[in-house]
TrEMBL record:
UniProt-recorded name of the protein: 7190_t:CDS:1
Organism: Diversispora eburnea
Top-level taxon in the UniProt lineage: Eukaryota
Entries under PROSITE patterns matching the protein: LRR (PS51450)
Length: 120
């Protein structure tokens, strides 16, 4: 999933899955993101996305349970719908087009938002 990705594999019944992922890939396409989320949505606990200029949305369709999320420098990101996914900590920085944010029903203990001029 992009040349800038770092994967931290975990194992269940001998099968590897991605529990924590950190990536920085300016060439990552929306299709790449959707494919990755679809394959790992049941297991993903921590996700760091930095410098993904084509990423435009993230929904709970792709992430059904996650504890930590960090999004930085995603200029096309305009919507983030992650209600009832178990989110405890989120950081969103320098995503200037983000104007829709739904985090209802989570267990947030940490919220760090900056560089979001369109968010109301």
């Amino acid at each position: 999933f992009g040349k800038g990705a770092e994967y931290f594999d975990a194992f269940i019944e001998g099968r590897a899955y991605k529990e924590q992922v950190s990536f920085n890939d300016p060439d990552c396409s929306i299709a790449d993101c959707e494919t990755f989320f679809e394959k790992n949505k049941r297991f993903l606990k921590s996700l760091v996305i930095d410098n993904c200029p084509q990423l435009s949305k993230i929904t709970s369709h792709y992430i059904i349970q996650i504890e930590q999320l960090s999004l930085t420098n995603c200029p096309q990101l305009n919507s983030l719908f992650l209600s009832n996914v178990g989110l405890e900590a989120i950081t969103i920085k320098e995503c200037p087009n983000l104007d829709l944010l739904d985090l209802t029903g989570n267990k947030l203990t940490h919220l760090d938002l900056s560089g979001l001029p369109e968010l109301k």
